[in-house]
Design brief:
D-amino Acid Aminotransferase, Chain A, domain 2; D-amino Acid Aminotransferase, Chain A, domain 1; binds 2-OXO-4-methylpentanoic acid; 29% strand; 9-stranded antiparallel sheet; 2 domains; binds pyridoxal-5'-phosphate
Length: 341
């Protein structure tokens, strides 16, 4: 099949129109069979609960093309289970794992020509979205839900991809707190962080690094988890009740262990930033983005003085992307081939 004519090697992390999206409706207690449509618009009731009361959650995953032209998904069932977690947090109905996986495969098949070619570094980004669509004026869960999955080819989330970015510790705004919805991929969490991201970017940083509600421990970035590497080869990443459980971070903990690192998932005090030899952001969109420096108040801690990724992030990045792009055998069963008819 001919690929869509795009400059895949230069794609930003942005929306690009593709051929089809897939939509399932939950009504009268069950999900329907779903439809494929080329429409980019949604007919929505003016009182839909997603609009007024934030019953909106999403997921993000990528589809990769291998050198020999196969198409691989990565840990889709984990995204499905996380959407179910988000839905519970927001009192929404969620699709079953089976419907979620089916929807992803349908949207990939319907947009096959947009799967970026191997070697461009780009991937087909899949964005599953769950919305309360039933009309509500009193605050209550909707009686109708839409599960929509769109696909769009993307390049790196942080400008220039696998090149170091600068972070700034956000010490004013608290994005999420224990007992809240920080563990959910709720749309509102991202709105809550936009002030900090806009401020960070306008001051020349790639992103803000959030602290926990006590402003003592590191939480995560707006769109990625955080990890640090110590000089004695420890992979340290925050354990927190107010962050998203990143599937990338989970994969990296497994791969880092294989590479001989000791894994520590525990509260990480902000003072520890001084002890790391390298730090990184990790997530589906971010993959691994090495951190050049972190500014915290008056202090700037520089990890990578020469603007190049460090050896630890490079090793981890390669271990992860070699599995995702099918370069290395996947001993964990994370990847699954999507077979076209
Ligand atoms: N944290 C936040 C707030 C995110 O938006 C994401 C992106 O999905 C992540 C972490 C990384 O999660 P994952 O590795 O599952 O993509
Ligand atoms: C992802 O990594 O898939 C995300 O969802 C991040 C997104 C908010 C840009």
């Amino acid at each position: 099949m001919d690929k869509a004519q795009l400059d895949y090697a230069s794609l930003p992390f942005g929306y690009q129109k593709t051929d089809m999206n897939v939509r399932y409706t939950w009504r009268n207690g069950e999900w329907d069979q779903g439809i494929e449509t080329d429409s980019e618009q949604l007919p929505l009731h003016i009182a839909a609960s997603c609009l007024h009361y934030g019953q909106a959650a999403f997921e993000g995953l990528k589809i990769y093309e291998t050198q020999d032209g196969r198409t691989l998904s990565f840990r889709v069932e984990d995204n499905a289970r996380r959407m179910q977690h988000s839905a519970r947090q927001l009192s929404m109905q969620a699709p079953s794992v089976e419907i979620f996986v089916e929807a992803v495969e349908r949207v990939v098949k319907a947009n096959r020509r947009f799967i970026p070619p191997y070697g461009t570094g780009a991937a087909l980004y899949i964005r599953p979205l769950l919305l309360g669509t039933g009309a509500r004026i009193g605050v209550a869960p909707a009686d109708e839900y839409l599960f929509l999955v769109l696909a769009t080819p993307v390049g790196p989330y942080f400008k220039n991809g696998f090149t170091p970015t600068k972070l700034i510790v956000e010490d004013q705004l608290v994005r999420a707190a224990p007992g809240g919805v920080g563990t959910a991929k709720a749309g509102g969490n991202y709105a809550a962080g936009m002030r900090a991201t806009v401020k960070a970017r306008s001051n020349g940083y790639g992103e803000a690094l959030y602290l926990d509600a006590t402003k003592s421990y590191i939480d995560e970035l707006g769109a990625a988890n955080f990890f640090g590497i110590t000089k004695d080869n420890k992979y340290v990443t925050p354990q927190s009740e107010s962050i998203l459980k990143s599937i990338t971070n989970d994969s990296l903990r497994t791969l880092a262990k294989d590479l001989g690192y000791t894994i520590e998932q525990r509260p990480v005090h902000v003072d520890e930033l001084f002890q790391f030899v390298e730090t990184g952001a990790c997530g589906t969109a971010a993959v691994i983005t090495p951190v050049e420096s972190i500014t915290w108040g008056q202090e700037t801690i520089t990890y990578l003085a020469d603007g190049q990724p460090g050896p630890h992030c490079t090793k981890l990045y390669k271990a992860l992307t070699d599995i995702q792009f099918g370069v290395k055998e996947d001993p964990y069963g994370w990847t699954k081939e999507i077979v076209f008819d």
